[in-house]
Amino acid sequence: MAEEAPEDGGTRTLPSLRRLSRALPFGRTHGRLGASSSGRPVVSALCSQESVDPQKTAFLLRKAWTLYSVTPLYRFRRARLRDYARLLSAFIAAERHRGLAVAVGAEMDIAVRLSSLAELRGTDLDQAALLVQLSSRSRASSRSSEDKPVWSGWFCSMFGDDLSENIPEDFTSLPLFLSHGAESYTALVGSWFQKTFDCCFRRLAISPQNLSWMVAMWAGCGLDTAASAVELVFSVPRLAQPLDIFYAIHPEDAKALWDTVQKTPGEITQEEVDVFMDCLYAHFHRHFKIHLSAAKLVKVSTAIASAHCDGIVKILHSQYLPGVLMLLTELAISQIQ
Amino acid sequence: MDATVSEFIRRTVLKIPRDEIKVMLQKWGFLSEAQLQTLNFHQLKDNISQEVVQLCEENSAGIKQAAVLDIIYNHIYQDKRIWSVYQMKKTGEELECFDITDFKKKFKRRIRSALKNVTITFKEYEDNAIWIRVAWGTPYKKPNQYKPSYVVYHSQTPYVFISASVLKSNMPLLCQALIVASNYHDIREMELRSHSLNSLKDIVFKRYSQNFQTYTTKPLQGGNVEPENADIRIVQENRGEKERIYRLNQEAFGSGPQPKLEFAHYRLETMFKSDPKMDVLDKKEPFRCLVKFSSPHLLESLKSLAPAAIEEKSVCCVVIPISGNHRIF
């Protein structure tokens, strides 16, 4: 049974009561239940003290990950990771033989490794993250130490337990998938998972509204080390000559602005995000007489992470990794529902 | 003839489009008309360039002559390079007569005092532009002819246009040599960059028809907003609004073609002011921002923002101080 994700969130199921008490989904606070702007308790989660072991998660940082939402996997067994790796490897070899796959040299094999990352989860109700690594191995040597990594992807659920609460027994919920490496490998791995576990991958686009949330939240996080600027990139596409506008704000000033905007401790509301963005737009308009609100926000970047509307993120700090993943998990879940 | 020189000439000729080769060689003037007649321009470019090299060998071409050919190529195809604008400053008001020989001598001396392995070539053009080509080496290596820097200097102005080589470490030396040779005492980069050298010149020498400050007493007719509709029953919606936008645009941008800018950077260090009702930031220090606009044709793009905005129901009037000071305080 493959769940077809609806195009638009209009027919989303009602949020569970537990979720309502925590917050309405990311950015969708004009709740159909009449509750206005409930906040997200993001601040405490983002600035979590119990950070994940930096050693194990170093590979996640400073890479551009392409995001997908994944519907729950049917009959996925954690104990069978070795088998799956073998099957996936055979699948890839077969596809290459058919000439469908990537131009790795003829003397190279693709070695597949699946592993679990128990630390990458929000609560015990979350599934542990699942990492898939493809490396090229020269046929001349069979020592795995000489493998060269060519692609990696991982499934993750960070505080995504609301979704997993509602799903039947045989399903495993890992709604967020991140890939790094050639698109052709992503397609291969994706199609194997889809065939084997009857799930559905969809690229996760990030709307300008969600990007605004991200930049507001991340701009407000304090960092010990010198932070890089808070950057917003806008595009005005429908002109004869397309125009890109890059608006960077000194991180201390952006944080100072956010600190005065954010009133409710431990929580962030849609209103606060709107005010923050309106302030930035107004400051810009004062100088250039251009309404940035009429342009399309395509990318945001802070010292913590950067995100692009095509669903590409880069996480820069391990301290905030759980918080960022939590946001992305929620986005993925919204897309699935 | 030096092998590096013949290879350099060969590669330079290969870059030239086939129909332009003869004209460019004539401009170069190093090969005689008789020699040029012997060239067959209807063969593969590879072969043409080999023949040219052979003729150059007959004339004992050296690196100096090859460098001049390179300048000629880059002068014609100047839009292939990215140019930045620098402004030089004098302390006093003394008007000195510009002496080209003195300039060249001082420039070469300053550069060679720091770096022996350089090739420096000058060419003057009719519009009073002095083109300078510098190929850079190191204390141990001969100059790299394939990554030169270009400078265009109009001697009656304090502006130089530089297309730097990728070997960026030579910029300070280049700037130093320029101010020493031209008797200025300081040089700073302006926030203007483009592929179109002429557009940069238009902007910096104020040769285009932007007229913020002037008030046109004769109101522009609200014409040319849309092509005339044959059917008079079709009435333009919002025609009044469209005409107003058109007029504002004309006042801001002028009616001529826009200089072709690709990037514009602004550093903002103004105070943050907000609606007092919003009860937000009220710091005493400036709100520091950096804004960059980029587009294949920036000014056309900005010009079309306002008319396009009609559809978006939000009107954008663009006021961009393109020339002059770019630090907004």
Automatic annotation (TrEMBL), chain A:
Cellular localisation: Chromosome, Centromere; Nucleus
Domain of life assignment: Eukaryota
Family annotation (InterPro entries): CENP-L
Family per record: Belongs to the CENP-L/IML3 family.
Keywords annotated in UniProt: Centromere, Chromosome, Nucleus
Pfam families the record matches: CENP-L
Gene Ontology CC entries for this record: chromosome, centromeric region; nucleus
Protein name: Centromere protein L
UniProtKB/TrEMBL annotation, chain B:
Subcellular location as annotated: Chromosome, Centromere; Nucleus
Pfam families: CENP-N (PF05238)
Gene Ontology CC: chromosome, centromeric region; nucleoplasm
TM regions (residue ranges): none
GO biological process per UniProt: CENP-A containing chromatin assembly; chromosome segregation
InterPro entries named in the record: CENP-NAC/CAD_complex, Chl4/mis15/CENP-N
Coiled-coil regions listed in the entry: none
Entry keyword set: Centromere, Chromosome, Nucleus
Family (UniProt): Belongs to the CENP-N/CHL4 family.
Protein name: Centromere protein N
Record organism: Zosterops borbonicus
